Amino acid sequence: MAVPPRRSSKCAWGNKIGVVLNDVLSVDELFKLAYGSFFIELADGVEIPATDGVLIEHVGETSEAYVFGTLDETLDMAELQEAWEHGIEGVFRIAAPPTTLPRMPRLKK
After folding, report:
1. Are 30 and 68 within 8 A, CB to CB?
2. Ramachandran angles phi, psi of 9, nearest 5°
3. Residue 4 has pLDDT above 80, yes or no
4. What is the pTM of this model?
């Protein structure tokens, strides 16, 4: 796997949360379109509820380490995020240039 699938990587980048997937989904399934699907993070010990007509699968665990992992491979999410942001920098400014802001006067009590 060269890069993590968009549906899981973009949600992790904003919060700097890593993920390690189990073998429930194949690489092909990770990259195919899945409209209406989403990932949910549950607290430890919470059971996945039984539902009718809705497929719910445990596909992995979140990780404090900022990585995208599978059973076979681990990718550094910081490197992947930088590559992705570099690709859109010409359209969306990712980082504002450094500026010096004027100091606000101290208020007297």
Report:
1. no
2. -75, -40
3. no
4. 0.61
**Distances in Å between the alpha carbon of 11 and those of 6, 21, 42, 47, 49?**
8, 15, 15, 22, 23
C-alpha–C-alpha distance, residues 19 and 8, integer Å: 9
Q: Mapped to the 3 state alphabet, what secondary structure does 36-65 carry?
A: CCCCCCCCCCCCCCCCCCCCCCCCEEEECC
* pLDDT tens for each residue of 80-96: 888 877 777 677 766 66
Q: Cβ distance 67 to 1 under 8 Å?
A: no
State both tokens at 74: 């681990």
Tokens of 83: 């590559």
